[in-house]
């Protein structure tokens, strides 16, 4: 189907089902239950899951295929966000032109930086990309404030021209982002017994775009172009000796992954029209590197998993506080309750970084191929069990992807 | 003229910190080939060795003074450090006063121990893993170390002053008839850095141990085939690198009050310094450290800022880009080290 | 946010999801009849406390959180009631807000606009928070204020000192109790004049982002009005840790006052560096060289240690104040946590009380009703003397403190001493003052 082989098709279908039913899957606990704290099925976080998924998929096209480790990819995301917000300020609140512009601007920016940085390889390339991104961040935070609004981040105001829209709505507020009239923030709430599920227009737009981006990534991975990029990863020198100039291929991969980042940035701004300079800081670039490695670099689904993993911890664990803990463990006797809360306390709320750091280490120590390998091991274990039942020998675990 | 000399001094001073951190990093990263994102954390732990020693020396017993009241109106508890009680206020007081220099002695064994445990317990298993995995595990470790420090010491900066005797300013220009007033501790820091750098170089240059390590850096396999236990030596090198980063941190505390994220602040910079210096080159790292320090100081001069607004924000990165584009392997890099 | 209008409902109804909803009889759509975003329907109301829990301001955030927990305790009738006993408005009963028990959720702003908005959004979308409060920087305050305006909930700003928060970025749903850069300048100027005279040359070092700029502008204007000259205004990168290369040029600039428009870690480092370079022992133009830190915080003063002694600045509030409100607050905070509260804790506690009181008086959680109750509200007994929440820009006007680093601190909390309580009249300004121009409150937004 769609020019994919059977395995890829089934993966795409699984991803499609997971994303489309995410509001159900991510809200497994009834709203009033103590476990509702772990529910992630609210619009903002679901949007973040798929947007950072797009970002990580794009990053993986460069890193997973060519082995070039860019440490400045957040710059493209930031540039994409700024372009989108400027479109909202100047043209109007429809998200399509904003997203298109952000992809184009990020692509051009990537072309420029890639052209310069790809003259070097290995760590030298990484540091060049890092340097460009840090320059963008530092300037955006300070001297470029007229364009970027610095510390606060670029916001919409009631005075923006918006030539194809209105500066302010009839009731005196700033108009909201929409897709031909469908407001991105409009949410349909479905209460099903004790459960509540939220279906958000913006999320579904992001989800559809992510599926398209995912499909495109599969096609790139399976294409002759993708083969060429893998060849660059395995031995660039040999490629050069055969008289083949690899630079156009790597540059193309760099620009494509920059455009993915721009797309993610544009979507972020479309869901919440604010573009902050921190989006370009090295920590943000580092985050996408971590997402990709954590999920499994070079695999198709890994980066998306990694993105979900990190964003989940950032948004869910940081919100657990002692008060919540006491509610959870209130069934214990008093002294024991306090002791349990005391033990867990350092890992939640303000300690969410600690939990994340420990998990990074555990994953990389015990699952060298990232979360994808974890999934494969579970699959292998299940199939071995099944094989035992039917008396057949277990097969080898599948290679990554 | 005075202004330029002052900025050169500032640059050398910043450069000393950069060079020391980069020296340790290049021992691990440029030679052992481990992308160590926890290196900044080692610097931070060093600084907190000084804080810890200061806290230990200030350990106090409390006496209730009925004549004074605390903010809630209860009798005030007056604290007296044990050190002062044991040695008398004079000697005890000056021991507390000299906490930071004393912390050097305190930090060396701790840092070597930290480096040893880190290498044996974790890094050793990652020599043959892809760089990506090294990034993830060391970044995770850096976060964990940082959060542990935050848990015990809080997020605010903690003041750790230099001894009173070294706290003032000195006129360095008096001999040549100029007025160049400079903080004493910063001069101390510069000479300390020079001493450590010189020590590491002569250690690697003039001892058999150093010779073996250098040979191991160049060709690990061959040295291993000669029957030399290169692994053990690399462990020791890791410990030394950790100690260098830690000492840089100890001595840095009076310049800026340490806080738990100071390691992350220096992390990116130290990678830039090492790469600009060239992978696998110790002199390159030191040179790049001082070069970037001096250029950064010049860029923050008002005359230059008025010519190019915001240049002080980006000078490090501009210089890095220019050097890496004109010299493919940085200032003094060796061919084939982490180029693919 | 279940926000509906006719056109959108039609769009959704044509969708498969809504179709399924119609098909199954057990399903009902929730709260589309709500009058405003997150209208509390049960026996409790949820407030969102959005403070920095990681990053350089984590300790300040932790103190804010303590204050919020204390405020919730008092609102629900626990503890000794704190400032509820001294507050001039007696609407609060200690039975929650409008009889609903106060519950809260917490989040981490990370002192980043993006993260702060994400956290606030999750409070609004997931937890049903009807009010968001907190924060430790102006960038975050302005970003979250914008979000709350769009979402239709009330924002009660925490620590934010930039003129822009209630200036060009003011919003109808946002309120600030903390003081601002202009007020710092207005309060400091007379004190500086008494101490250092009218013939001074000032050199500014300014953190290179919007808060720094507005403070620099405010202080320079106030001191120039005294007759001081400003010889230079130098911007320093936010990421700077070693300020030596910015301090060195001060030595030969002819300036005799250094103004440090820095906050947090920047302020600790720049002040430490300035003292290292012997600026305080220097004599220029026949006068002692002086350093001024316009925005002081006790938590930061602790980081700079010895170096703050004798250095002047301004704060919103300090725990040594002797009015009834401050004493009551310090007592209940100190009893609960064992140390006195910071100014950040104070402003957050007061903001929560003011919100709760406004809801009681309005008789509704509807943001527009709350806005109406807060606009032009005059109150007392909250630690800063008689205070006005001005209707035109939602800024509180109250006395401002000028403080000095204490020479002989008696404890680790006793770092600042109050030099002067500048009366409110002296720090007031017209709503259309040029430093605050360009903004537009807009209309209050109740959401749904």
What does this structure look like?
The complex is a heterotrimer of chains A (401), B (340) and C (448). Chain A is mainly α and 401 residues long. Chain A has a domain of 276 residues: Orthogonal Bundle (ABC transporter involved in vitamin B12 uptake, BtuC), CATH 1.10.3470. Chain A has 17 helices and 6 strands. In chain A, the strands form 3 sheets. A two-stranded antiparallel sheet of chain A has the order 1-6. In chain A, α3 packs antiparallel against α13, α4 crosses α11 and α8 runs antiparallel to α11. The longest helix of chain A has 25 residues. The relative contact order of chain A is 0.16. Chain B is mainly α. Chain B is 68% helix and 7% strand. Chain B is built from 13 helices and 4 strands. In chain B, α7 crosses α9 and α11 packs antiparallel against α13. The longest helix of chain B is centred in the first third of the chain and has 30 residues. Chain B starts with a helix and ends in a 14-residue tail after the last helix. The model of chain B has no long low-confidence stretch (mean pLDDT 89). In chain C, α6 runs parallel beside α7. Chain C is globular. Chain C folds into 2 domains: 228 residues, 3-Layer(aba) Sandwich (Rossmann fold), CATH 3.40.50.2300; 134 residues, 3-Layer(aba) Sandwich (Rossmann fold), CATH 3.40.50. Chain C is an alpha/beta fold and 448 residues long. In chain C, β10 and β11 form a beta hairpin. Helix content of chain C is 38%, strand content 19%. Chains in contact: A-B, A-C, B-C. β4 of chain A pairs antiparallel with β1 of chain C, so a sheet runs across the interface.
Structure at a glance:
The complex is a heterotrimer of chains A (401), B (340) and C (448). By secondary structure, chain B is mainly α.
Low-confidence stretches of chain A: 392-401
CATH class of the domain at 6-281 in chain A: Mainly Alpha
Secondary structure category of chain C: alpha/beta
Q: How many helical stretches of chain A?
A: 17
Termini separation of chain A comes to: 18 Å
- Strand portion of chain C, in percent? 15-25%
Question: Which ranges of chain C are low-confidence, i.e. pLDDT below 50, for 5 or more consecutive residues?
Answer: 1-32
Beta content of chain A comes to: under 5%
Q: Largest interface, by Cβ-Cβ below 8 angstroms: which chains and how many residues each?
A: A-C, 58 and 65 residues
């Amino acid at each position: 189907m769609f020019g994919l082989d059977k395995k890829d098709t089934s993966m795409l279908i699984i991803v499609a089902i997971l994303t489309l039913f995410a509001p159900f899957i991510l809200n497994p606990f009834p709203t009033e239950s103590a476990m509702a704290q772990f529910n992630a099925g609210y619009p903002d976080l679901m949007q973040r899951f798929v947007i950072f998924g797009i970002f990580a998929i794009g990053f993986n096209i460069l890193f997973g295929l060519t082995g070039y480790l860019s440490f400045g990819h957040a710059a493209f995301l930031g540039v994409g966000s700024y372009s989108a917000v400027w479109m909202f300020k100047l043209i109007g609140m429809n998200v399509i032109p904003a997203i298109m512009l952000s992809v184009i601007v990020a692509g051009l920016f990537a072309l420029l930086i890639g052209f310069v940085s790809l003259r070097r390889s290995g760590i030298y390339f990484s540091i060049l990309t890092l340097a460009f991104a840090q320059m963008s961040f530092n300037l955006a935070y300070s001297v470029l404030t007229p364009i970027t609004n610095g510390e606060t981040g670029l916001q919409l105001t009631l005075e923006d021209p918006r030539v194809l829209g209105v500066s302010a709505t009839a009731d005196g507020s700033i108009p909201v982002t929409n897709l031909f009239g469908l407001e991105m923030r409009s949410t349909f709430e479905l209460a099903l017994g004790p459960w509540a599920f939220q279906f958000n227009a913006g999320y579904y737009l992001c989800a559809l775009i992510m599926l398209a981006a995912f499909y495109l990534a599969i096609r790139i991975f399976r294409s002759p172009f993708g083969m060429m990029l893998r060849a660059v990863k395995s031995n660039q020198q040999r490629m050069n000796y055969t008289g083949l100039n690899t630079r156009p291929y790597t540059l193309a991969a760099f620009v494509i992954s920059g455009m993915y980042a721009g797309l993610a940035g544009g979507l972020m701004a479309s869901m919440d029209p604010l573009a902050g300079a921190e989006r370009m800081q090295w920590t943000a670039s580092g985050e996408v590197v971590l997402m990709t490695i954590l999920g499994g670099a070079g695999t198709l689904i890994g980066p998306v998993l990694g993105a979900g993993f990190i964003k989940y911890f950032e948004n869910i664990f940081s919100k657990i506080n002692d008060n919540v803990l006491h509610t959870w463990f209130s069934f214990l006797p008093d002294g024991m309750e306090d002791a349990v809360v005391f033990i867990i306390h350092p890992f939640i709320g303000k300690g969410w970084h600690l939990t994340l750091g420990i998990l990074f280490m555990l994953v990389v120590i015990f699952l060298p191929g990232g979360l994808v390998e974890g999934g494969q091991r579970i699959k292998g274990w299940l199939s071995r069990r099944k094989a035992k039942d039917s008396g057949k020998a277990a097969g080898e675990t599948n290679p990554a992807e | 003229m005075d202004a330029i000399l002052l900025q050169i001094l500032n640059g050398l001073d910043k450069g000393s910190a950069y060079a020391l951190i980069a020296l340790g990093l290049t021992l691990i990263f440029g030679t052992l080939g481990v992308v160590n994102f926890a290196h900044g954390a080692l610097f931070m732990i060093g600084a907190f060795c000084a804080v810890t020693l200061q806290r230990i020396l200030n350990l106090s017993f409390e006496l209730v003074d009925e004549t004074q009241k605390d903010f809630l109106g209860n009798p005030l508890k007056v604290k007296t450090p044990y050190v002062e009680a044991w040695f008398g206020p004079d000697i005890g007081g000056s021991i507390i006063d000299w906490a930071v220099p004393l912390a050097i002695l305190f930090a060396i064994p701790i840092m070597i121990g930290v480096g040893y445990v880190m290498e044996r317990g974790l890094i050793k298993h990652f020599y043959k893993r892809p760089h990506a995995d090294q990034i993830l595990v060391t970044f995770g470790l850096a976060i964990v170390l940082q959060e542990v420090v935050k848990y015990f010491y809080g997020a605010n900066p903690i003041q750790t002053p230099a001894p009173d005797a070294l706290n003032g300013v000195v006129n360095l220009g008096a001999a040549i008839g100029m007025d160049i007033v400079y903080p004493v501790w910063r001069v101390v820091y510069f000479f300390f850095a020079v001493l450590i750098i010189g020590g590491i170089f002569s250690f690697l240059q003039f001892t058999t141990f150093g010779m073996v390590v250098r040979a191991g850096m160049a060709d690990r396999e061959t040295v291993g085939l000669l029957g030399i236990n290169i692994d053990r030596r690399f462990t020791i090198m890791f410990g030394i690198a950790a100690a260098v980063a830690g000492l840089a941190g100890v001595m840095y505390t009076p310049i800026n009050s340490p806080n738990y994220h100071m390691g992350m602040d220096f992390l990116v910079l130290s990678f830039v310094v090492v790469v600009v210096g060239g992978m696998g080159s110790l002199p390159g790292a030191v040179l790049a450290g001082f070069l970037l320090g001096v250029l950064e100081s010049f860029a923050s001069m008002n005359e230059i800022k008025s010519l190019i607004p915001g240049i002080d924000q980006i000078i490090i990165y501009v210089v890095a880009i220019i050097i890496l584009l004109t010299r493919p392997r940085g200032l003094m890099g060796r061919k084939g080290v982490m180029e693919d | 946010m279940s926000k509906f209008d006719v056109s959108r409902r039609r769009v959704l109804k044509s969708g498969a999801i809504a179709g399924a909803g119609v098909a199954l009889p057990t399903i009902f759509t929730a709260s589309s009849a709500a009058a405003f975003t997150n209208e509390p329907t049960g026996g409790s109301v949820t407030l969102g406390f959005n403070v920095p829990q990681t990053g350089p301001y984590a300790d300040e955030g932790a103190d804010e959180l303590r204050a919020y927990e204390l405020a919730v305790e008092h609102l629900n009738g626990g503890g000794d009631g704190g400032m509820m006993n001294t507050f001039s408005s007696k609407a609060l009963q200690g039975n929650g807000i409008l009889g609903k028990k106060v519950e809260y959720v917490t989040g981490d702003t990370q002192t980043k606009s993006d993260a702060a908005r994400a956290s606030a959004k999750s409070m609004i979308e997931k937890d049903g928070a009807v009010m968001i409060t907190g924060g430790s920087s102006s960038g975050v305050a302005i970003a979250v204020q914008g979000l709350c305006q769009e979402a239709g909930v009330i924002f009660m700003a925490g620590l934010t000192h930039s003129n822009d928060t209630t200036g060009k970025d003011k919003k109808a749903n946002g309120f600030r109790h903390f003081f601002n850069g202009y007020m710092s300048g207005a309060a400091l100027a007379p004190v500086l004049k008494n101490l250092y005279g009218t013939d001074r040359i000032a050199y500014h070092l300014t953190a290179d982002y919007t808060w720094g700029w507005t403070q620099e502008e405010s202080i320079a204007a106030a001191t120039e009005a005294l007759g001081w000259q400003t010889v230079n205004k130098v911007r320093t990168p936010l990421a700077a840790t070693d300020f030596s290369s910015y301090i060195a040029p001060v030595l030969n600039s002819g300036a005799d006052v250094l103004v440090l428009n820095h906050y947090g870690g920047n302020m600790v480092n720049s002040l430490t560096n300035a003292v290292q370079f012997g600026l305080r022992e220097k004599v220029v133009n026949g006068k002692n060289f002086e350093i001024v830190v316009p925005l002081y915080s006790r938590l930061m003063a602790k980081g700079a240690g010895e170096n703050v002694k004798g250095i002047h600045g301004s704060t919103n509030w300090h725990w040594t104040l002797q009015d009834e409100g401050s004493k009551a607050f310090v007592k209940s905070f100190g009893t609960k946590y064992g140390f006195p509260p910071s100014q950040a804790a104070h402003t957050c506690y007061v903001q929560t009380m003011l919100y709760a009181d406004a809801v009681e008086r309005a008789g509704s959680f509807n943001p527009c009703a709350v806005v109406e109750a807060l606009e032009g509200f005059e109150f007392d007994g909250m630690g800063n003397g008689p205070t006005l929440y001005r209707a035109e820009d939602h800024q509180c006007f109250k006395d401002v403190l000028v403080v000095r680093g204490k020479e002989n601190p008696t404890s680790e909390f006793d770092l600042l001493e109050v030099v002067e309580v500048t009366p409110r009249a002296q720090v007031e300004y017209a709503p259309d003052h040029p430093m605050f121009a360009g903004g537009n409150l807009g209309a209050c937004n109740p959401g749904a």
